[in-house]
Amino acid sequence: MPTGVFRAIMLAIFSILLAACAASTRVAKTYSDDAYANLSFSNFLVIGVAGNYNSRAQFERTVASGLRAEGASASAYYSVVQGNEPISRDAVLGAVQAGNFDAVLVTRVLDRQTDVDVKSGSAGAKATTIGGSAINFFRYNYEELNEPQSISLNTTVVLTTELFSSADEKMIWAIESSSTDDAVVAVLIDNVAASIVSSLRRDGLIGR
C-alpha cells in the first residue's frame, strides 16, 4: 500500500476516534434572535446557577477561561462579587456596570440523573485472629464477603445556557447541552464548558 494512502487511512481512523471521544456531550440550539445575527461580544460575565458553590465557581472559571482563549475578555461572577453572593438582578446589574460587561452568559441545570452499574466479582475475605502470631496464616478465621467487585456511576446532566445583551438586558441566544460521563464533576464541567464556548464561537458571538 502506498505511504500516502496509508497515512490518509490512519488520519481518517484517528478523526473517527476523536469524534467518538467527544460524543459524550450533545448540544442543541433552542433560541436565536435574528436581530443580533451579526453582533459579537468581547467582554462576558459568566454566571453558573447551582446549589454547590465550589462546583459553580469551577464552572464559571472554566467557561471564562475558554472564552479568554478565544480572544475575548471574560470574568467569573463569583470573582467579580468576591465570593458566594446571591445571584439577584440588582447584584448582576451592579457587576455588569462595575466590569463594563457587554454580555452576560447564564447556565443553569435543568435535569440530573445518575445511573449505578454494579458488577459482581469473586468473594473477598475478612480475617479474624484466633490467637498466635499475627503473621501465622493458620491462626486466622476467614469470613467470605460477597461484596461487589466494582461500582460505576454514570451521570447525565442537562443544562441550558442563555446569552444576554447587557445593553438592553435581552436574551438573544440559548442552547441546551446534555453531558454523560463518569461521576466526576470536573470532567462534566470541562465537557459542558467546552461545548458552550464552541457553540458561541461557531455562531460568531465571540468578539475580540
Short description:
This protein is of the alpha/beta class and 208 residues long. It is built from five helices and eight strands; from the N terminus they run H-E-E-H-E-H-H-E-E-E-E-E-H. The protein is globular, with a radius of gyration of 25 Å.
How is this structure best described in words?
By secondary structure, the protein is an alpha/beta fold. It has two domains: 25-118 and 153-202, ABC-type transport auxiliary lipoprotein component (Rossmann fold, 3-Layer(aba) Sandwich), CATH 3.40.50; 120-148, no CATH class. The chain is built from five helices and eight strands. The protein has a six-stranded mixed beta sheet. A two-stranded antiparallel ribbon has the order 5-6. Helix 2 (53-69) runs parallel beside helix 5 (185-202). The chain is globular. The relative contact order is 0.21. Residues 8-23, 122-130 and 132-152 have low confidence and may be disordered.
Q: SSE layout and pairings?
A:
Blueprint lengths: L2 H19 L3 E8 L10 E7 L3 H17 L3 E4 H4 L8 H11 L3 E18 L3 E6 L10 E6 L2 E18 L4 E13 L2 H18 L6
Parallel strand pairs: 2-3, 2-4
Antiparallel strand pairs: 1-8, 4-7, 5-6, 7-8
Features:
single chain; 208 residues; alpha/beta; Rossmann fold; 6-stranded mixed sheet; two-stranded antiparallel sheet; 33% helix; globular
